[in-house]
Input
Amino acid sequence: MLGLDHLQEGVFPLKVLQDYKSRKYLFRIVWFITLFMLILLILSSVVLHYSAETRMLQMQKEANRKVMNQINYNVTYMQELVKNTAMTLYNNNQVYFSLLANQNQEPFDVIMSINQMNKTMESSAFLHSIMAYNGHLDRIYAIGPLAAEMQDHYMAVELAHRVQSENKLPQMQLIPMNISGRPNMVDFFSLIVYETFFEKNDRESALILNVKPEWIFDNLRNVNDFSAPDQSSVFLIDEAGHTIMGGSEQLPPNDIERLTQTIADDRAGVADESFGFLSQAVGGHHDLITFMNMGVGNWKAISIQPYNAVLGGIYKLRMTSIVVIASFLLLAGFVSILVSRRLYQPVEQLLNRIRDQSGTESELRMPGHDELAFVSHAYGELSRKLHLATTEQDRHRSIVRNYHLRTFITSGSSLQDPDFRESVRKNELRVELDSACLLVIVKIDDYSEFLEKTTAAERLLISFAVTNISEEVLALGGFLCETADMRSEHMVIIVSGGKLRVQGYEGLLPLLERIQDVVQAYYKISLTLTLSDLIAPHVPLADHYDSALRNAAYKLVFGKKAIITPERVAPNLMQLDYTFPADLEKKLMESIKMNDLEGMEFAVNRVLQHLSNYHHDHIVHGILHLVDVIKRTIREMNQNRVIAVPVNLSTLSHKVLGKETIEEIGALLHKVCGELHEKLQDTEKDKNTALMDTIKMIVEENYGDANLSLQGIASMLRMTPAYVGRMFKMCELISVAEYMNEFRLERAREYLETKNFTIKEIMELVGYMNESTFFKLFKKKYGVTPKEYRLKRNIG
Output
């Protein structure tokens, strides 16, 4: 039993896990709640940690600023103290005149001055030594470790040597001195007072007070009150970036260089360069660096604090946050399981009902599907089947309705026919049986183009739209309507209702125009509507349908988007006597032969206007006759012309019959007339060009014949001289005689240049018999006589 209990306890978590895996939507709810709470906690912890760290760094920055200000105050105070001591000693006449200014020194005065220096040094704990250098005598007076008998006296000699340099050392400020040569060390800090304040050194004397380096070192160490003082460091760096001394173990020189470069980069472009606080890796560790410019000698105080030591409390807070997050995650998982189970109950109930109905979970087991996907799929399948069933039912009903309507429209049935009345009842047709009705034939304009641009599905949609629009618009006027698709290029609307009997067409026409406008606006389709006569309830519909269908052909006359009523068509139906206007036919033929475009277009317009008053059959016959007149005229012209008109009108009759309105036919015939006009112009130009070339060739070959003239050329061409002269003048802008003279004179000029003939011989060669005439024409063209021309050419 104990083993079985243990086995069940081990199996229970697996069953729970398997249960959640099989219920993917439940599993997502659990994960969402848990993840949401976890993300919220993590974001809160991150924000809290970031805020605490930022605040800690800000507080540390302010604390470091205070410490740096204290260091700056102590160092500046020490310099002022040393300056005061130096000035007191320098202003002592006994010291000044005995040791510095006097060149003839009395031993007693020197001893008294040295004793005065000893008293000053004994009263100041920070002094390392005092030295007076007499530049006039090149003599050193030093007390303390630099005295003559002391081991460090060599430092006094070196210090005197530095004081003797041509450019003086800075006065009245502490100067770090490393005379012993030990690396990164300071033997003492010197404050120098020269005799004068001139820049150049002219063997001047100087009073030098040297400060113990330990005094500043202890000051830095005592003021090192930063966080983690055992791990922090404070340094003094001079203007060149060299370490003067530090309050703890000094950094290696390469780290000092990196540190100074980091500080310089951080201060670049910053207005306030006196204080800085930054985080940087120095010496392989992440540290906080604080620096401040001192008021002494352009020194810079720098502190280095370990980043981890300063923010140790923050890191402890971070670990605490991690522990809290882990604990909260366990609690959130437990709570999310309890909450998700309760939220999942409605979904599970719905899922069980669907399973009971479908008896399968195949869709639920598909990868990527959850319970809701299964429910959605099942609902979609059900909706699809229901939609298919409904659509099929509606389609069958629509087919039956349309079949009955077409049958009754095309057969001899009337509204009172029992079968029609039964069909209206069974199919719920919107037809009023006891009132008058009329038929409206709906045709789509430019139907051939409409068929090319639309698919069968789109055409069904447009038919359905026209039906709905017609029902809604006519219902506003109190009319009932039912639409039948006649399975051709048109539909038929049966309009009925009490208002039709009272108002007739008057109330219906504005509504039909509204239908045309709505369809045009939404579907960019133009409709032509043809109305039948009013049909009494006992009168068959078929006769009126056939009559309205014939009237619809008069769109040829009334144009597209027209509403054709029996009244509008009546004048055309009465015009049974047909005559084609002979005068217009003659005018058209003459205009074509004369290439008169305006005349052609005028004749075409008048003929079409005349034909539009006739019966439709006569209109079609007259239009075909008009086309035949154009073709026949072109054939006659081509039989008599040298150059035929290159125009093909074999398909013109077919194109004309394909147009729906007389206006379109007129535009087509105008285009044909324009093409004829252009072709005739081109052929006329070709003919004139050939004539001009022939005349020029005759002149070029016969220019030496003195009898050559316009009459002779016209005789050769078998044309009248007047015609030849007029055409040549029109094309070449000069007469034939002028052209012959031009050509003859040009040949005469060539002979004068290239031949040795006499002028009389040349005159006869080019066709002139009268010498005076030749000379006169030559001088008029070239400005000189033939003799002068030849003489000038020979001299040249």
